[in-house]
Amino acid sequence: MVISINEYSDVPIYLQIRNQIVMGISSGELSAGEQLPTVRALSMEIGINTMTVSKAYQILKSEGYILTDRKNGARVRMEIDQSGHLSSRNKDELRRIVSEAKISGVKKDDFDKMIEEMWGE
């Protein structure tokens, strides 16, 4: 999986990394048990500080997406909690996206189609 960073984005780099890894897991591009690059390797590949990658990995670990240990590095968890519920943080983010779509004049049917396309990816 190739992680690309937009240095001009308002989204902090560690969140860009986190988000791309979550999307990679969701799409199947990253499979259960798959080894992720080491913090040092990913930071060198992207050209950023190791602490930034470390922060992204710490968040992913706390959210239950990856496992880390000093000997084996970071891996995608074999089983990710599938509670069927969104976190309050994700609900807030979804509410923001829906609000922006409404303000922008996106029709609900068009929004639903976008979700269906993304869900099927």
3D structure, described in words:
With 121 residues, this protein is mostly helical. It is 53% helix and 7% strand. The protein is built from five helices and two strands. The chain has helices at residues 13-27, 39-46, 50-62, 88-103, 108-119, and strands at 66-69, 73-76. It is globular, with a radius of gyration of 16 Å. The chain starts with 12 loop residues before the first helix and ends with a helix.
- Helix segment count? 5
Rg computed from alpha carbons, rounded to a whole number of angstroms: 16 Å
Strand content: 5-15%
Helix content: 40-55%
The H-level CATH homologous superfamily of the largest domain, spelled out, is Winged helix-like DNA-binding domain superfamily/Winged helix DNA-binding domain
Uncertain regions spanning at least 5 consecutive residues = none
Q: What is the overall silhouette?
A: globular
> Main sheet: which strands, in order across?
1-2
* Total strands: 2
CATH architecture label of the largest domain = Orthogonal Bundle
Q: Major sheet: size, sense and barrel closure?
A: 2 strands, antiparallel
Named CATH topology of the largest domain: Arc Repressor Mutant, subunit A
- Give the topology string: H per helix, E per strand: HHHEEHH
Averaged pLDDT: 92
Number of domains: 2
CATH C-level class of the largest domain is: Mainly Alpha
* N- to C-terminal distance: 16 Å
User: What class would the helix/strand composition place it in?
Assistant: mainly alpha
